[in-house]
Write a structure and sequence with these properties.
heterodimer, A: alpha/beta, Rossmann fold, Cytochrome-c3 Hydrogenase, Chain A, domain 2, 2 domains, two-stranded antiparallel sheet, 10 helices, 13 strands, B: alpha+beta, Cytochrome-c3 Hydrogenase, chain B, 4-stranded mixed sheet, 3-stranded antiparallel sheet, 18 helices, about 15% strand
Amino acid sequence: MKLLWLQSGGCGGCSMSLLCSGAQDVLGLLASAGIELAWHPSLSEASGDEVRAILADFESGRTPLDLLCVEGSLLTGPNGSGRFHMLGGTGRPMIDWVRSLAARARYTLGVGTCATYGGVTAGGINPAGAIGLQYDGNQRGGLLGPDYRSAAGLPVINIAGCPTHPDWVTDTLLALALGQFGEADMDALGRPRFYADQLVHHGCTRNEFYEFKASAEKPGDLGCMMEHMGCVGTQAHADCNIRPWNGAGSCTNGGYPCISCTEPGFESPGHAFGRTPKVAGIPIGLPSDMPKAWFVALAALSKSATPARVRQNAVAEMPVVAPAIRKTGLK
Amino acid sequence: MSRITVGPFNRVEGDLEISLEMENGRVAAAYVNSPLFRGFEQILVGREAMDALVIVPRICGICSVSQSAAAAAALADLAGVRPTPNGQRVSNLILAAENLADHFTHFYLFFMPDFAREAYRARPWFAAAEARFKAVSGSAAGDALPARAAFMQIMGLLAGKWPHTLTLQPGGVARAPQAAERLRVFAALREFRGWLEKRLFGDRLENITALESIAALRRWMDGRSATSSDFRLFLEIADDLQLARYGRATDRFLSHGAYPREGGWLLPRGVLDLPAGSLQPFLPADVLEDVSHAWLEDDQPRHPSEGDTRPVEEKAGAYTWCKAPRWQEQVVECGALARQAVAGHPLIRALVVEAGGNVASRVIARLLELALVVPAMESWLRDLDDGPFCAQTEIPADGRGCGLIEAARGGLGHWLTVRGGHIVRYQIIAPTTWNFSPRDAAGTPGALEQALVGLPEAEPLLVQHVVRSFDPCMVCTVH
C-alpha cells in the first residue's frame, strides 16, 4: 500500500512523536506490513520538482493512493482562500491539494487533533480559519464535508491526540494493511476504538490519591490533580496511562493534568487549563458515567477516610511517608 | 536573468519555498518564503497567563520544549521568581534532551541523505554514504532512530512525554525525579553516550571536544579511515565537495546564552561580530522586527515588547509571512555554530575566522555540541540534591515578561504583556525567524538569502546543502 503523508497547518509534532516509537525499526515495521512510504516531508529524499511529480501522479490516479495521512489543521483563511498555507513550490493552497487527493484515497487519516478537529490552531480567535478534515470542533463537516467517504467506504479515520502516541498511528496503519479495520472499529467521533475506548484515568499512577480525594494543590505535588489542577483524565478518551509515552511517561506521571487533547475543542476549555472549575466547591466535570450525588457522597466519605500517608504525600514533591510494612505478611 | 522556484522543500521542519534569480549561471538573489501562517501570537491573546504553557509548545513539534522553556522564562520574569537549583537542573536536562535529539535528527534524517543522491554516484565516498544515509532505507534509519527513541525515554522519565510536555514551570519543574528515575535517566545517558562514541564519532566524546584547532581536527581525520565513523565520513564528504566554501552569511553570530547555571550559562550570551572584529554583549533592547516584506500590516520596525502581528491578504513587495528581526539593524545568524563561536570553543572560533559560517562549520558545530552537552547532562543529574524542584509562583495580574533561551536552532525569545490576569500581547522571535528572515526596509536580505547568493546553477544540490545547514524550523519561524 502506498502511503502519502502531508503536513498542513500544524506543528509537525505527530511526525516527531512517531519517531519516538518503541519499535526497533518503525519504518521497517510498516514496510513489513506492505506499507510503502511514497513521500513524507521529514523522511523522504524527494524534494522540489520530484515531489511535485509524485503528487501529480497521485492526483491524476496514475499511482493509486492507498493511505492519505494528513497532519495539521486545514487552514481556510483568509476569506476562504486557503492562502495562509500554500504548499511550497506548487502555487496551490494546501486545502486544495487535500480535497483533491482525498477524493482519490482509499483511506484518509487525520493524524493529530489539528487534522481531525481543528486543534490548538483553531484556538482563540482562530486567526487562520483552522478546521479539521471532517470536523470543525465537535461539528461534523470540516474540509471534506459530513458525507465524505474514502474510496474504501470509510469516513476520515480520526487519530486524535496532541500529539498522537506513536502506536496509535502505527497500529491503525497496521490494522488497515492487515484488513482488520472497519467502521465498527471507530468511535462516534471517528477515533480508533482500540485506544479511544479507554479513559486516561485507567492505569493512572495517582489512583490511590484519587481514591481518597487526596489532592495536589500546586505544580509538583504528588496528589490527584482532578480537584484543583484541572485534570480531566477521568473523562478523556485515550489509553495514555496504559500505553506509556517515551518508555515510561504520561502527562499525569509527568506532573501535570490531562487536558483531554484527544477531544474536539480541547484547546478552548473555557477556563484556565491548570485550574478545575467548580460550583459550590465541587468540580463541574465529574468522572464519566458517574452520577453526581454518588460522586459527592463517595468523595466526602473517602476524604474523611484518607490515611495520613496519602494525605501528606499528596501535597509533597517527594513521598514523605512510605507505606507501612505489615509484620504478619500479606493476606 | 531567469527565476526558479524550489519547493516543496522537505527534510526541514515545516513548509518552505525559495525563489532564486539566476544570472550568468549563478544565484544573483534569493527570496525565502515561509508559506504557512497560523497566528499563534493572536491565539494567545485573551488567555490567562499560565495557559501559555499549554499553547506555545504546540507551535512546534520539534522545538516543543524550547517553546515551553521560553514561556516559562517569560512567566518567571513576569512573576519575579527564579527556578530552584534542582528545578533548573532538570529543566536543563529536558531542554538539552530535545536540543541534542534535534541535532541528531538533523544530521541523520534531514542533512546527510542528500549525499546519497544519484548525482553523487561517481564520488569515491558514495557507496559508503548510500549504504549509511540513503533516506528511509539506509542503515542509519534502522539504527539511529531506535537510538534516538531510547534517548528520548529521558523525556518519559522527566517530562511525561515529548513533544508537548507541561512539566516546565516558571519556578522549575512539576515533577521531581525520584531515586529510581534518576538511575534510569543515568542509564539512558550512558547508552546514548555509548552510541555516539561508537557510531557517530568513533572516539570518546571528550576527545572530540578536545579538538581545539583546525590542525588537530586534520590530525584526527588523518588517523582514521573515511568510513570509521559517521562524523569522519561527513568530514571526508565536506572536504571533497568543499562544503566550507558555500553558504556564508554575515558572520555576525548571536547567542541568548544556553543552559542557565549559578552566575551565568553553560554557553554564555553575546554577539560575535566578526566584520567588526568584536565580541559584544547581547542586549534585548537592541532587537527590532521589521515587517516591510511580510504579508503583515505595514508598520515601523518595533521592539517585540511593542510588536503586533496583523496578517493582510495582499501587499506590494511582500513575499513571506516571516518578519525580519535585526540586531542593531544588522542581519545576524544563530544556531549551534553561533553558540559555540560566542562561547569561544577554540576549534569553532578558528573555523569561523578562517571561512565564516558555512555548510561545513555549521554541521561540525552541531556535532561538537552533542559531544559537549552529554557530559554536562551527566553533571546536572549528578548534582541533584534534596532541595525543592519547583519554587511556588504568584503570577501578577498586570505586567510584562521576557524569556530568552537557546533552542537547538538558536536564540528563541518570548515577550508577553498581561493585564487583569490575561495576555494582551505575546510576541515571539524564533531562531529561524532570524536565519530565514526576508529583506528589511533597507532592502538588506536575511541570512539565508545572503548565504545562497553566488551558488552555481549547475550544482542545484548545493542549494539543498546550504538551506539544510541552518537546520531550519519553518513552523517556528512564523508561528
